[in-house]
Automatic annotation (TrEMBL):
Full-protein interval shown: 315 to 725 of 725
Protein name per its UniProtKB record: glutamine--fructose-6-phosphate transaminase (isomerizing)
GO molecular function, one term: carbohydrate derivative binding
Domain (SIS) ranges: 47-186, 256-401
EC code(s) of this entry: 2.6.1.16
Superkingdom classification of source: Eukaryota
Catalytic activity entry: D-fructose 6-phosphate + L-glutamine = D-glucosamine 6-phosphate + L-glutamate
Keyword annotations from UniProtKB, A to Z: Aminotransferase, Glutamine amidotransferase, Repeat, Transferase
Length: 411
């Protein structure tokens, strides 16, 4: 049922405040006196120590699920201290790449039925790795055949283009990072900041009960009172809701789509946490709007892609505030110097800081700033909206793109 929406992809993009809420529900907890804020992942509780002790964590997936793992990789490395490597499932199997007993292999799949990912799982099991599943589908082959796992609880995703599952996968993997790093005193402040950041992403209607965060005046402005089921308790709930805020860019992205409708190609540059945003944004555009699009690591720009830059080719640069911001500013300057046609995704209030020659030199999409490791959840949404509107305007089937299936169950 599409409800008030015309397409499933549109519905699934717009229901992300709710899908993210269900992903987090019951998993963020107030701990004892020494740990004020913590994460509980029931499906992993007997295995978390083994994961912490692994020699390596290997993320394995395809398409959007691979991109979600790539977005989460830096925070897992930071909080766990365990080296993380990335594997596209088919490539791991083709190479028969090394997987060891001391490895934790994490299989990320919305459907839990992707043939390539299942073959990689079989291979990792044969090699004795601890196998963890991250899926949206209870009872799926990956959920059944891994040693333990986490369901992302994003709700049924019908559009072939994965949207809400992507953001829920990132949030689940951020929670995985918090759970693995839970015993390190040195990163406690960082972990608490991330938990606060998770709290600020979606509507907190369902979270308020399981987590007691102190409110500031800004939060109080958004406060509402919810009746919490049988307990007859009324608690304030925070409505900070960064995801709902970024969804308000819908019309702006439709206008941008009108400008890009006849283009042949689109490049997307990102780095750090948002290299994944570049790959995933480009994947969305190409798979539904059938426009050629490439996501690129901005650090690689001078090693080839710069040759493509001219006044015609549209280029999206992700330049929200994080440790890579100044490097992205310099990428923008270099693209600008070559008359690049720039569209910059930046943090709210940063338009002047990212547009070298003022607003005439580039188009700016301002998004709310959140904790750096959660920023990919916010940043992908304008690109999902752009892909959706481009497709509708170009007259293609947005929910069932040419030649694609929702679940790829053959090799
Ligand atoms: O069900 P899975 O997450 O394993 O599917 C993996 C890919 O086939 C899938 O993400 C595909 O790339 C999507 N259509 C992208 O939107």
């Amino acid at each position: 049922n599409k409800g008030k929406y015309e397409h499933y992809m549109q519905k699934e993009i717009h229901e992300q405040p709710e899908s993210l809420t269900t992903t987090m529900r019951g998993r963020l907890k107030r701990g004892g006196s020494t740990k004020a804020k913590t994460v509980l992942l029931g499906g992993l509780k007997d295995h978390i120590k083994s994961i912490r002790r692994s020699r390596r964590i290997v993320f394995i997936g395809c398409g959007t699920s691979y991109n979600a793992a790539l977005a989460a990789r830096p925070i897992i490395e930071e909080l766990s201290g365990v080296p993380v490597t990335m594997e596209i499932a088919s490539d791991l199997v083709d190479r028969q790449g090394p997987i060891y007993r001391e490895d934790t292999a994490v299989f990320v799949s919305q459907s839990g039925e992707t043939a390539d990912t299942l073959l990689a799982l079989e291979y990792a099991l044969e090699n004795g790795a601890l196998c963890v599943g991250i899926t949206n589908t209870v009872g799926s082959a990956i959920a059944r055949n891994t040693h333990c796992g986490i369901h992302i609880n994003a709700g049924c995703e019908i559009g072939v283009a994965s949207t809400k599952a992507y953001t829920s996968q990132i949030v689940v993997m951020a929670m995985l990072a918090l759970a693995i790093g839970d015993d390190a005193i040195s990163s406690q402040a960082r972990r608490e900041a991330i938990i606060d950041g998770l709290f600020d992403l979606p509507s907190m209607l369902h979270l308020a009960f399981s987590f007691n965060r102190s409110l500031d005046y800004k939060d109080l402005f958004y406060c509402t009172v919810v009746h919490l089921g049988k307990s007859n308790m009324f608690l304030p709930c925070i409505f900070a809701d960064k995801v709902r805020e970024v969804l308000k860019l819908d019309q702006e992205m439709k206008e941008l789509a009108k400008l890009l409708i006849a283009e042949q190609s689109l490049l997307v540059f990102g780095r750090g946490y948002n290299f994944a945003t570049a790959l995933e944004g480009a994947l969305k555009v190409k798979e539904v709007s059938l426009m050629h699009s490439e996501g690129m690591l901005a650090g690689e720009m001078k090693h080839g892609p710069l040759a493509l830059v001219d006044e015609n080719l549209p280029i999206i640069v992700i330049a929200t505030r994080d440790a890579c911001f100044s490097k992205q500013q310099s990428v923008i300057q270099q693209l600008h110097a070559r008359k690049g046609r720039l569209i910059v995704v930046c943090s709210k209030g940063d338009a002047a800081a990212v547009c070298p020659g003022g607003s005439s030199s580039c188009r700016v999409i301002e998004v709310p700033q959140v904790e750096d490791c959660l920023q990919p959840v916010v940043n992908i949404i304008p690109l999902q909206l752009l892909a959706y509107h481009l497709t509708v305007l170009r007259g293609y089937n947005v929910d069932q793109p040419r030649n694609l299936a929702k679940s790829v169950t053959t090799q």
